[in-house]
Amino acid sequence: MKKITLILFLIAANLTFAQEETKTEDPYKISLYGFSRVDYIWDSRQSAQVREYNLNLWPLDEKLDANGNDINNAGANNFLSLVTRVGVKFSGPDVWGAKIFGVIEGDFFGNTEQSVALFRMRHAYAKLAWEKTAITMGQTWYPQFIPEVFPGVANFSTGIPFNPFGWASQFRLDQKLNTNFTFTFITYKDREFGAVPADNIQNSANYRSVIPNLHGKVEFRNKSIIAGAGYEFRQIKPLLESNGLKSEETLQTTSVLAYFKYNHDKFHIKAYAISGENLTNFVMLGGYATVDNGVDPVSYVGTKTNSVWFDIASNNAKTAPGFFFGYTNQEGTDANSGITNVYARGLSMTRGVKDMWRASARVDFKQNKFKLTPELEYTAATHGDAQNDLSISGNENKVGNFRANIVMVYSF
Questions:
Q1: What pTM does this model have?
Q2: Domain 93-361+378-396 belongs to what topology?
Q3: Helix (H, G, I), strand (E, B), or coil: what is residue 8?
Q4: What is d(CA 169, CA 205) in angstroms, rounded to the nearest whole number?
Q5: H or E element, residue 246
Q6: Is 15 helix (H, G, I), strand (E, B) or coil?
Q7: Of 41, 46, 42, 53, which Cα lies nearest the Cα of 70?
Q8: Hey, what's the signal peptide range on this chain (predicted)?
């Protein structure tokens, strides 16, 4: 009888201990998020595009055949699910008095045209957050991409090439100055979208530079307004040798930006502007060129790009119309002669996109975690001859592309 009592006691104690253990809260938390998405796209004209026409940049210049017919005056359409996304958020016990969490996120857009539909990394970072200071380490948005202030268009472009886009591995410091103002310093290196390589080696111009990109900005926030301004210094080293000689030449460029968002109960307005040289890494127009300065090795000069956009949309929980307008142009370089090669987007030694604008209208139909968005978009571009300084004028030709887009998203 004593043995049976002892066994029953041990079982009861074990059950109690197990229950106490179950009550103990696990300090480590993991949650999944993402969405399944399908896009139907119809275009009236051939365009510079990315990933099987999922993302259209600008309508292509006229290309006349022997009979005078414009070869690029032809439509395109596609069904795609490439931007379907999955992510993991995780957190754990405090580190050095800071709350800590991390994110790993990817989609199926691929890193190149050859890797379409393959999984690619978007975000992979950890963040330490104190009361007034936060440090982020890893890959996340470029400093020029503001998550709360980007176009709400249905097209996966998120406003490309008017709005900077992309991710980079970085060290980021956010310091609250007071209740409303924050100063941010970021040092980073380009990864997926970098300078056009002069030697056909991806990101070589970026990692050869011994100085990382340096970015600083000040931001104001209150209940209704987000506003900020930033400045960046960037250095690249396109070549290790030129004409058989060791090259120490680098290209230093700068850019400035400003952004604004006003949020009302019924609607919100966003606006953004950026100006700088060699903005290829943001999937924007422009880049850089090599210059023959009379001695070896060659030197470099950046091409200047300006861009501005605004977006207005309803905050209705079920039916939310929106409108977007963007404008961008190229202004050439500081070199009036001696340019030998161009490494840029939307620009060559002979022709280029002088300017372009885009207007689009959309309506989000939302219920629970499902969203259906039809969108109509028109993009107009002016192509012209490149001059000695790579500014564009003469023999100008205006073309346009109409895009109809329907997007269906189910989130979790």
A1: 0.90
A2: Porin (2.40.160)
A3: helix
A4: 16
A5: strand 245-246
A6: helix
A7: 46
A8: 1-18
